[in-house]
Design a protein that fits this description.
mainly beta, Sulfite Oxidase, Chain A, domain 2, 10% helix, binds the ligand Nc1nc2c(c(=O)[nH]1)N[C@H]1C(S)=C(S)[C@@H](COP(=O)(O)O)O[C@H]1N2, binds molybdenum atom
Length: 199
């Protein structure tokens, strides 16, 4: 019989390779909103991309849904330590959306109905890593989870996934968003546990 450290098995039991450090699994879908839920009708909804030169490209609901909609399954990691694995969404990839947008900006600030903002490098929105999601588990996204449309950037902590998204500002200089401005990490990689400023 070999010598086996109990700590090794303990970690193996707890260790889910899909779970970033410090996170726990949850089956339900918590709602985290910094303010009231804005109720935005799809008749009124639009998404505007504003480039660093001030050019605006805008899609209304029908125009967004006329773009190729992808179905994708991703894991969600909230900075408050819950993770939800294997969530399935439908939405338009930011690669598709930004395809015809002329820009040399390096940063993006997502803006939401209700006033929320969050920032990230523009490249993190590209290469199949970010979507404007319009459906969750086969149904329209409920208002509390960001419907009619939310940004999803699942490789970063979930505060980067702006609910009720209404715009993307493409910027030459980084501009902190709502949580980033009060001490959350500017980038927010769950695998490097970048929760707060200085992590
Ligand atoms: N517009 C907006 N988007 C937001 C937030 C918010 O308060 N307002 N909260 C963020 C945070 S901290 C998290 S964890 C997720 C929560 O998404 P959920 O409520 O669908 O779980 O939304 C993010 N997007
Ligand atoms: Mo969060």
């Amino acid at each position: 019989m070999g010598i086996v450290s109990p700590g090794f098995f303990g970690r193996r039991r707890a260790g889910n390779p899909d779970l970033p450090p410090g996170q726990y699994l949850t089956e339900d879908f918590p709602v985290l909103s910094a303010g009231p839920t804005p109720l935005v009708s799809t008749d009124d909804w639009s998404l505007g991309v504003t480039t660093e030169t001030g050019e605006v490209v805008r899609w209304n609901w029908a125009e967004l849904n006329a773009l190729p909609v992808e179905r994708f399954t991703v894991d969600l990691h909230c900075v408050t330590k819950w993770s939800k694995l294997g969530t399935t969404w439908e939405g338009v990839s930011l690669d598709t959306l930004l395809d015809g947008v002329e820009t040399s900006a390096e940063y993006a600030l997502a803006t939401s109905y209700g006033g929320y903002t969050t920032n990230l490098p523009l490249e993190d929105l590209l290469d199949g890593r970010a979507w404007i999601a319009v459906r969750y588990e086969g149904e329209p996204i409920t208002p509390e989870h960001g419907g009619p449309a939310r940004l999803l950037v699942p490789h970063l902590y979930l505060w980067k996934s702006a609910k009720w998204v209404r715009g993307l500002r493409l910027l030459d200089e980084d501009q902190p968003g709502f949580w980033e401005g009060v001490g959350y990490h500017n980038y927010g990689d769950p695998w490097r546990e970048q929760r707060y400023w200085g992590d």
